[in-house]
Design a protein that fits this description.
Cytochrome Bc1 Complex, Chain D, domain 2; 3 domains; elongated
């Protein structure tokens, strides 16, 4: 009975705190890669009006998370995307990963030195992507390269900095279900391994390791299933921290033609 009363008391207090504490003060975790990317975007797009310290506009102190019209992340997304009529705040056409990064940086401005954040250089990153990293041997970018791995031409518009960094260091843990390779064995023993492009109840279309488009009828298969491990190598020990940051910057710059 006592334990039941204590549990009810705890729930009442927790509910009261949730109702009374402003949403802007509720702790939230932001990934370091998103914060660093946000610092870069902020320096490029926001410092002209808000200043490096975020307190140039009267009544606004971004470093202290003091805003005129926003408290939650959703409020901030709306203000950034639509602007504020009658003020100097214009709408910005940021891609979703860019918005995530801006918010991550705004929520962490006080504890981040944008001058020392490891952001990377896209030009150097392209050189590593095409050279030491060997990424261009499998991935296609803007019409150039093979098709055996996912096309990365617009990857910076759909994946956050944190998601891309995790793929670079541990691809097996982060590969998307849709990007996993499949292995099929026909009834006569032929083995086909490749990237699945399309699948329905009766057929599956695969681009194999020789970049050939193969259409398979499931009734003609003896075995069919996902390849659990990706062929993409992890770069945690293959590239330096600076090289990883540069490749990440290059991938984030890919937003389609």
């Amino acid at each position: 009975m006592l334990r039941s009363m204590q549990s009810k008391s705890f729930l009442i207090v927790a509910g009261w705190l949730a109702a009374c504490v402003p949403a802007s003060l509720i702790a939230q975790t932001y990934a370091p890669a998103d914060i660093a990317y946000g610092a870069k975007l902020y320096a490029e797009q926001c410092t002209v009006c808000h200043g490096a310290t975020g307190d140039v506009v009267a009544g606004v102190d971004l470093r202290a998370n003091r805003f005129k019209r926003s408290s939650t992340d959703n409020d901030l997304r709306t203000v950034i995307a639509t602007g504020v009529a009658g003020t100097g705040m214009p709408p910005f056409k940021f891609e979703p990963p860019e918005l995530t990064a801006i918010l991550a940086y705004l929520r962490n401005m006080r504890g981040v030195d944008s001058k020392t954040a490891l952001i990377g250089d896209a030009t150097r990153g392209r050189a590593v992507f095409e050279g030491k990293g060997g990424c261009a041997r499998c991935h296609r970018v803007n019409g150039n390269g093979p098709r055996v791995a996912p096309d990365l031409s617009d990857i910076g518009a759909v994946r956050t900095a944190d998601a891309l960094q995790r793929v670079l260091v541990d691809p097996d843990a982060e590969v998307r279900f849709a990007n996993r390779s499949v292995r099929a064995v026909t009834k006569d023993g032929k083995v086909i391994t490749g990237r699945r492009l399309n699948e329905d109840t009766y057929t599956v279309q695969v681009i194999d390791e020789q970049e050939r488009l193969v259409s398979l009828v499931k009734d003609n298969l003896r075995e069919y299933g996902l390849v659990r491990r990706t062929s993409m190598p992890g770069y945690r020990d293959k590239l330096t921290a600076n090289e990883l940051a540069d490749v990440l910057a290059y991938l984030l710059s890919l937003k389609g033609l």
